[in-house]
Fold this protein.
Amino acid sequence: QVQLVESGGGLVQAGGSLRLSCAASGRTFSRYVMGWFRQAPGKEREFVAAISWSGGSTNYADSVKGRFTISGDNAKNTVYLQMNSLKPEDTAVYYCAARVSWRSQYSYWGQGTQVTVSS
């Protein structure tokens, strides 16, 4: 059974930083693609960033480019999302997800962690 557990959310002022963590267990993730998504109240869930665990390739939503950085620690089976220069519009529940490859659907999801950015 694959489990993804997010942590690191919280309340921060605009311009501040947070680092989210996603701990993965239950499978060998060396070839997986890990992603971060977010969902704000009343809005659909949207893609934030993704990383290929094996090759380190990354992809970002335009809204977070230059501010957010996704990275992974293979030894710890943990993926991180460093969020800098946070804006009130970044307020959302952030979810970690995993898929087998860049071409497949995300099959595994975490429970989410709340990020609130105050103005």
